Amino acid sequence: MANIFQGESKVARCVREWDRLLREREWVDTEIFASIFSYDTISGEEMFGYEKAVKKAKKEIRLALQERGMLLREQADAQDNRRLLTAYPLDNKDPLHNLRIMAVVEAAMAFSRALQITYSPSFHEAEEHIFHPQYLRNYNGRPYVYGVYENEEENNGLPFVALPVDRIVTARLTKAVSYRPGDQQAYEAQLRNVLGASPNFRNPEVLEVVIRSHDQKVHKLLLSKPLHHSIREQQPCTVEQTGLLTMRVQMTQELYNWILYYGKGIEVVEPAELRKRITIGLSQMVTYYDAK
User: Check: CATH 3.50.70 for 206-290?
Assistant: First the structure.
């Protein structure tokens, strides 16, 4: 779905204003757009165009919410004025948060501007940063923006950092510093052999991972919905035999988590270091259950 917050069309303007008001109050009159666009000062033809934009904006927000498991409900008040109600989660991370932040990030990259962001990393309080967005990528359904902080120390010696968009609390364009562009091809080369959001900068070696599949459904799933482009079938999984799959990736936490996710359905054959790491992890898990 296109980003409904992006652009200067009537629909995008309706969406942005509607969204702003919905986050400030519980109820918003549907007639609010009459004052936003000064219906009393525009021609009948222009009014018709804005009315169509308002109708489409409402549809776009409703669809975006539905895709995220939310509903935009309409209800009549005592005076029979139509009003809008949206149910945002208690943590204020509303279902349109990513779209809103992405609109700002995309604008920054399009106009070569840095961002003033409030970022909330895991287990830490939100902090203010100046960030240079350089590359966008989705991993496992979660959008990430790649780039560098203006303060070199905040990059921790890394060539770039990956920020999950949903952890960016606020974002706005800034002219306080000159924008630092990134090399798109360099990013793609760095991320090509990564199963996950970010490369293993400490150990970038690419491993030939051999997976034995013990479940036909799991085997087919890994091929029909591959989490990494390098997955290849070396031997089909049938009733008579286990399957074999290979992939070329770096050693990352996401690779480890991915293998554990499929449980007894798959087994790491090679490399030995990854197999040993999985064995240690499983042994630790067994102690949790034995302790009960």
Answer: no
